[in-house]
Amino acid sequence: MKGTVSICCLLTLLLLQATAEVEEFDSVLRDRSHIDETLRLAAEEKAADYAAAIQKLRKIYHTSIKPMEQAYKYNELRQHEISDGEITSKPMVLFLGPWSVGKSSMINYLLGLHDSPYQLYTGAEPTTSEFTVIMHGEKIRSVEGIVMAADSSRSFSPLEKFGQNFLEKLIGIEMPHKLLERVTFVDTPGIIENRKQQERGYPFNDVCQWFIDRADLIFVVFDPTKLDVGLELEMLFRQLKGRESQIRIILNKADNLATQDLMRVYGALFWSLAPLINVTEPPRVYVSSFWPYDYAPDTSRELFKREEISLLEDLNQVIENRMENKIAFIRQHAIRVRIHALLVDRYVQTFKEKMSFFSDPELVFQEIVDEPDKFYIFKSILAKTNVSKFDLPNRDAYRDFFGINPIANFKSLASQCSYIGGCLLDKIEKAITNELPTLLSSINSGKQPGLSSCEVTGCGEKPKNRYRKN
């Protein structure tokens, strides 16, 4: 009996000693100086030049692109309305992945929020049930989702369409931080495969798609214990299709494994994701441990440090190129608006050509919408305009579009001209081919964007209209 008691006491002492060693190890914090150095947080930004470029971009959008959007109801086709808040917003970094893989811990680590009262709550169980937007502010405060959606100066007002249940699951956190002056982080609820989407109370996939469409960088985070791919994660990767250049895969908590086991887990991660990412060049994978404590002993510390610095350089690249990316995004949007206007104009012209005195307007137009190839709607656009066939929208989308927007509501492009305002088509083409590339060149060359000669002195030339018949 005494022997049993002695053994129990010995085991207890060993356990306490091991626990003390673990606690001592956990208390050793990692040096964070490389974060500030890699992200160049101490460098001063040229705020005046950036503000001038943003102002110029807003003017191009409002004068050359938005009038065409409104005239041909582009937002009802794509459901993507660009607001001033989106034009002036900072780059968005989106964190996605299964539950408790370290998404919130990674944000805490990047912002140095460890052991502060403002750190994001973390734990081994599913902890993040809201979409959390971490952004810059003059003081630390939380902002309710309803307030964020109602504030037109922010870029989150379109989120109202997902309903009040979602807005209750949306929260913003403002804090004064050098990194947040340049970027906005979005933490998302972890994916739980045994929970149906309907139980969340809001369209989770649709909300994810909204953030994916606006994210400049997307971190999909895994850890060695959560490599399986279920239905919800598979759906998420379908939504990421076409955004492969923005995706970065992160294998977090890598110092929990020995080197040999880490290699096996790395291979298993690629095996799981291979069917979901059908591209010739797979996304970059970062292997490290993104939290404030030091790496576990007897692990690949140098490798993890280099991987972390590579990820920070990737993040810094997005920050450095934020103005160029924004101009490229607006130009891509303008190209889509132009193609939409050309297609609607072609539908209008075909409808007028096929109508006769005895024709039924509804039957005639229904035939055109149901069989656009029969009337060469899309082929004529490719033949007569500088449009790539890969940029053409889905034909079925126009069946729904004209279902809620009668053809009689639209004018032809030839009639969308005025002596003072010019032609909508000429203005948007000028923005695509001249104004936006010129603004991009001025950013790359470091010159402050100025006004064109016509904007300074005024140009009295009558606008040319290639669609007007002589």
How would you explain this protein's 3D organization?
With 470 residues, the protein is of the alpha/beta class. Helices cover 48% and strands 9% of the residues. It contains 18 helices and ten strands. The strands form two sheets. An eight-stranded mixed beta sheet has the order 3-4-2-5-1-6-7-8, sandwiched between helices. The protein has a two-stranded antiparallel sheet with strand order 9-10.
Helix segment count?
18
Strand order, main sheet: write it out: 3-4-2-5-1-6-7-8
Termini separation:
112 Å
Q: List how many beta strands DSSP finds.
A: 10
Helical content class: 40-55%
Q: Give a short account of the largest sheet.
A: 8 strands, mixed
| Low-pLDDT residue spans | 18-26, 450-470
User: Which class best fits the helix and strand makeup?
Assistant: alpha/beta
- Shape call: globular
Following the backbone from N to C, one meets helices and strands in this order, namely HHHHHEHEEHHEEHEHEHEHHHHHEEHH
Overall pLDDT metric: 84
Strand content: 5-15%
Radius of gyration over C-alpha positions, nearest whole angstrom: 27 Å
How is the topology of this model organized?
Elements: H1 2-26, H2 33-39, H3 47-71, H4 75-78, H5 84-88, E1 92-96, H6 103-111, E2 131-136, E3 141-144, H7 145-150, H8 164-167, E4 170-175, E5 184-187, H9 204-214, E6 217-222, H10 231-239, E7 247-251, H11 259-273, E8 284-287, H12 301-320, H13 322-354, H14 361-370, H15 377-384, H16 395-404, E9 417-418, E10 422-423, H17 424-444, H18 453-457
Parallel strand pairs: 1-5, 1-6, 2-4, 6-7, 7-8
Antiparallel strand pairs: 2-5, 3-4, 9-10
Helix pairs in contact: 2-12, 3-13, 3-17, 13-14, 13-15, 13-17
